[in-house]
Design goal:
Elements: H1 20-37, E1 51-53, E2 60-62, E3 75-76, E4 82-83, H2 90-93, H3 95-98, E5 100-102, E6 112-115, E7 121-125, E8 130-135, E9 142-148, E10 153-154, E11 159-162, E12 171-179, E13 182-189
Parallel strand pairs: 5-7, 6-8, 7-9, 8-10, 11-13
Antiparallel strand pairs: 1-2, 3-4, 9-12, 12-13
Amino acid sequence: MAQQTINIGTVANDGTGDPLRSAFDKVNDNFTELYADDAGDVNSVSAGTGISVDQTTGAVTVTNSEPNATHTGDVTGATALTIADDVIDYAKLGTEFTTSYTLPVPAAGQPMNVDFSSAQVFTTTLSADTTISFSNQAIGMVKDLVITGDFVLTLPAGSTVSGAYDGTVENLIQIVATSSGQFWYSISQAI
């Protein structure tokens, strides 16, 4: 059935509109058609494998054509994944976790930069009072500095958990980045 429009006339109460009973009959017919056709509101869905529509009820169904795809290689399995023994090794971790780097002596008045992305352990012997700066640090990174040299060492602002720098011996300074620009230090010397 096509939509039935109620004639309301051109001016209020001019007598040219549908009588009240006829108008409400059209309203009922329109609602009857809407309710009867409600189940078929979705007429088509075109989206490829795994998507279908029921033309009678209008229900759209999405299914995964491979719900238990099997993974192969270092990580295997379908529903539960397993990491093979000995697949996580130093070569896969990257240089920032597996290498040592000797920090060069900076030009006078310049800080000695420790680039967190370049190595895990940094070594140096101070030849003058030195200020350290950090770059490419990320929350959770832990780096180790092995420093000697009887000069003043200034670290970036942070909290020292224990110890103090003693330039007369070799120092192990462990740094933990706990948030953007916040560091915790532990400084120790061999006994």
